[in-house]
Design brief:
Elements (H helix, E strand, L loop, with lengths): L1 H10 L5 H9 L8 H239 L10 E8 L4 E5 H9 L1 H11 L6 H10 E3 L2 H8 L2 H27 L13 H16 L8 H18 L4 H9 L2 H17 L7 H15 L3 H9 L2 H23 L6 H17 L6 H16 L2 H11 L10 H22 L15 H7 L5 H10 L17 H20 L1 H8 L4 H18 L3 H15 L3 H7 L7 H6 L4 H4 L1 H15 L3 H8 L4 H10 L6 H6 L3 H16 L1
Antiparallel strand pairs: 1-2, 1-3
Helix pairs in contact: 3-4, 3-6, 8-17, 9-10, 9-12, 10-13, 12-13, 12-15, 13-16, 14-16, 15-16, 15-18, 16-19, 17-19, 19-22, 21-22, 21-24, 22-23, 22-25, 23-33, 24-25, 25-29, 29-31
């Protein structure tokens, strides 16, 4: 900066100023004479020399003073050392004098002690002589006494021997007499017993003869009575059989008439078209068939939807040659709605080729998983390093206890003591893992706990495949929940479980238990649930969720793809769909049913989230999306029947037509949780593949079910505070209608208020609060975009310009639904064509 200022100053000077300044500065008047300069320099040098000498004198004086002080200190130290030496010599002299006196005292005391010892020894010797003399005297006295005692004893023994000899002689004589008497008594007893036995044999013969006579008479009376009773029984059975056949015939005739009247009422209701009351979802005992459209009808919902649908109406118009109405249309419909033949039902509901292809693919996936397990076992990763954790010792002890319990069991069901010990150990491990400490999870893996738990699952699966259940479902649930807790949010443990193919046994056991559960439900005609299967689904969901994320690598995706593909190929998704179709009523109809349904929905959502994370929905994706077969299976099973499950749980006893008169009754917590889980699953499926989602919900009957469920939940949330449930309902309705004309029209049909009208009459906060508008506005746009009829309904309550402004603001940072609405025309055309094809299929 200074240089720049100088340059600027130079540039602003007048010409010739530099020369003037040079002459002024180089003028001789400004310089001093050389002699003057030398004189000043010499004076400075002299002054400096004087100052150096002064400084050196001061330093010399100071060093001499320091030397004097050092010498004084040295002399003082020498004096102190000399004084200390003299004092030590005096102390040593005094000590030597004391030692000499002490030794003299010791010598003097020793001489006195020696004299005393001699005197004591003399006294002791005298006493010993006296004692020895007394001892000898006592010995002589005792010997004399002992000799007398011995003589007396000898005499007594001789007398005793003489007495014993006399006694023995007398005893021999008495024994001889006793033997003679006993022999006589024995002879008499023998004779008496022979006489008694002879008399008893005679009496027994007489008794047996009388018993034979009585038995003969009794058998004759019994045979006669039995013959009469048999005749009466046959007559009664014949009459009962006749009555039962007559009753069954009358019942069948009544049921046929009832079914026909119900069919006529349903057809008449469909022909009327005014009532939008939720129909019964309960399937027909015998499925119906529309011979005009060649469509299978499974329940009243599908019957009403089909008769009111465009396909059937066009078919009636084409077959009859003109538009029919009133009784003519009713009779025409009744003539073409018939019971479906068995071969028609089988051909329309069972896809043999698909299941055959899935079985082939399942074998390939299983072989690939086994090969990966062997490769992982050979690598160093199969042996995790020990990890320090707060409960490492407890976990190691629990693993050892589990191994001991498992190794001590043979084949067949386990005893109750072993099952109790297993449950107790698993409970302790689960309490530790529920604290959520990642070090405990890694420590359990390093201690071999994951392998032990997997071995237990494999053993249960091996025995269950032989139709032998070694442990109850409660224990299977405990094992699975413990393994799930060890893998929850732990990517290392999840990778270890999948790479070592521990997950294979869990998936096989899940499929086996679901198959047995389906058989039980089919045999009992009702719904049953399995806590063990629910826990296994929780384990699988934990594995998929822990490894799913936006940074999903290709290697990890290959592992998870095999797990997801295996679940699809073995038929787990199909079994879940069939179980959903068996559920009748709410989740409180059976113990543990709510947890089973929740875990099933979470498993479906985890599988869909995995595919969504790997392949975001985009037309630019070059890699095939559905390598796992999940989307195709969801399309075949109609989204696993999630919508039908919701319809049956919510609308079995509560019709939307009742909303005008009374508010909805409060739902129990299990039903609300089930509805939230089901809607979250539907949202995830919509984000996975919107075309498949709208295709499945666009079917006849399914769209009506979805409309009734959405309408009921909007009605329910308007009277009961359920913000999360309301958000899910709004978002699901938006995906259902996004860029699909037919689905948009579904949401504006039905009794007033329709779904679209209910969305428009939500509280004002949904139209003003940014956190709520970002949920509602995309759904309203999805319902009204490119649709003049729904837009006209919207304009009655809200300006469409507000939605357009919102769409422009959210175009860059909008949610997934906004991106779908802003997609290209080609994508929207494909979605529309899919929905139209679904309505015509």
């Amino acid at each position: 900066m200074d240089l720049l200022e100088e340059l600027e100053e130079l540039s602003s000077r007048t010409p010739g100023r530099g020369l003037q300044m040079h002459e002024k500065l180089s003028s001789p008047s400004r310089k001093k004479a050389l002699s003057e300069t030398i004189r000043l320099h010499q004076e400075r040098q002299q002054k400096a020399s004087r100052m150096r000498r002064t400084l050196m004198d001061r330093k010399t004086q100071k060093l001499s003073e320091i030397s004097i002080k050092i010498e004084e200190v040295r002399q003082q130290k020498e004096q102190l050392l000399e004084q200390r030496r003299l004092m030590l010599e005096r102390k040593m002299a005094r000590a030597e004098e004391k030692r000499r006196k002490h030794l003299q005292d010791i010598v003097r005391r020793a001489h006195d002690e020696e004299e005393k010892a001699k005197e004591i020894a003399f006294i002791n010797e005298l006493e010993a002589k006296n004692k020895r003399h007394e001892f000898y005297s006592q010995i002589q006295t005792q010997e004399a006494r002992l000799a007398g005692i011995q003589e007396e004893r000898q005499r007594r023994q001789e007398e005793k021997a003489a007495k014993e000899a006399a006694v023995e002689e007398k005893r021999r004589a008495l024994e001889q007499e006793r033997r003679v008497k006993l022999e006589e008594l024995r002879q008499k007893r023998k004779e008496r017993l022979e006489r008694i036995h002879r008399e008893q044999r005679d009496k027994e013969k007489e008794r047996l003869e009388m018993a034979r006579e009585k038995q003969r008479d009794r058998d004759e009376r019994r045979s006669a009575l039995h013959a009469a009773q048999q005749a009466n029984t046959e007559e009664l059975q014949r009459r009962i059989q006749q009555k039962q056949e007559e009753s069954a015939r009358r019942h069948e005739e009544n049921m046929v008439q009832i079914r026909q009247r119900a069919l006529e009422l349903s057809v008449r209701s469909a022909a009327a078209g005014g009532d939008d009351t939720a129909a019964q979802l309960a399937p027909y005992d015998t499925k119906k068939m529309c011979t005009l459209c060649n469509v299978l009808i499974g329940s009243e919902v599908y019957l009403l939807t089909h008769l009111r649908g465009r396909q059937h109406q066009e078919a009636v118009r084409a077959a009859a040659g003109s538009d029919l109405a009133g009784e003519e249309l009713l009779l025409y419909n009744l003539r073409h709605i018939t019971d479906a033949a068995p071969h028609q039902i089988i051909n329309m509901t069972f896809d043999k080729e698909r299941h055959k292809a899935l079985r082939k693919r399942c074998k390939k996936i299983k072989a690939r998983m086994v090969a990966r397990q062997q490769e992982y076992a050979r690598s160093s990763q199969a042996r995790p390093a020990p990890v320090e954790s707060p409960h490492r010792a407890k976990l190691a002890k629990c693993v050892k206890d589990l191994s001991k319990v498992v190794s001590g069991q043979g084949r067949g069901p386990w005893p109750n003591a072993a099952v109790s010990a297993l449950d107790r150990t698993l409970g302790e491990m689960l309490r530790i893992l529920d604290k959520g400490i990642s070090a405990d999870q890694l420590s359990l893996c390093a201690a071999g706990g994951l392998q032990v738990l997997s071995d237990i699952i494999a053993l249960i699966q091996e025995e269950l495949a032989k139709d032998v259940e070694i442990v109850p479902a409660r224990t299977v649930s405990n094992v699975s929940r413990t393994l799930a807790a060890a893998c929850r949010q732990s990517a290392d443990n999840c990778l270890h479980v999948i790479n070592s193919n521990m997950v294979g046994a869990a998936l096989d056991l899940l499929m086996t238990r679901l198959t047995r559960l389906s058989s039980t439900c089919a045999a009992s005609g009702g719904v049953r649930c399995d806590p063990g299967a629910a826990a296994l689904m929780q384990l699988t969901s934990a594995l998929l969720s822990a490894l799913t994320g936006p940074d999903l690598s290709h290697q990890r995706w290959a592992l998870l793809q095999d797990v997801c593909s295996y679940l699809v190929c073995v038929g787990t998704v199909d079994k879940i769909s069939s179980f959903f179709s068996c559920v009748q009523g709410g989740p409180d109809s059976e113990p543990h049913l709510a947890d089973f349904l929740t875990q099933s929905l979470r498993l479906l959502r985890a599988m869909a989230a995995l595919l969504t994370a790997r392949h975001p929905q985009s037309t630019q994706s070059k890699e095939p999306l559905d390598r796992t077969g999940l989307i195709a299976t969801l399309q075949v099973t109609q989204l696993c029947g999630v919508v039908s499950l919701l319809y049956d749980a919510l609308l079995r006893h509560h019709s939307p037509a009742q909303r005008r008169s009374t508010p909805p009754p409060p739902l129990d917590q299990a039903t609300v949780l089930l509805a939230a889980e089901a809607l979250s699953t539907l949202l995830q499926l919509a984000q996975l593949d919107l075309h498949m989602f709208q295709l499945c919900l666009g079917f006849e009957g399914r769209s009506v079910e979805f409309r009734h469920v959405t309408s009921y939940l909007l009605w329910y949330c308007s009277h009961h505070e359920q913000p999360n449930l309301l958000r899910l309902v709004i978002q699901t309705a938006g995906y259902f209608a996004a860029r699909c004309y037919d689905n948009q029209m579904v949401l504006q049909k039905g009794n007033m208020p329709t779904v679209l009208q209910q969305l428009l009459t939500l509280p004002f906060a949904h139209f003003s609060d940014p956190q709520l508008t970002v949920v509602l506005f995309p759904t309203l746009l999805a319902c009204c975009m490119d649709n003049a009829q729904t837009r006209a309904i919207l304009d009655q309550e809200l300006s469409y310009q507000i939605l357009e402004d919102f769409l422009k603001q959210e175009s860059s940072r909008g949610c997934h639904l906004v991106r779908v609405l802003l997609s290209t025309d080609e994508e929207s055309a494909s979605v529309r064509s899919g929905s139209v094809a679904s309505s015509r299929s």
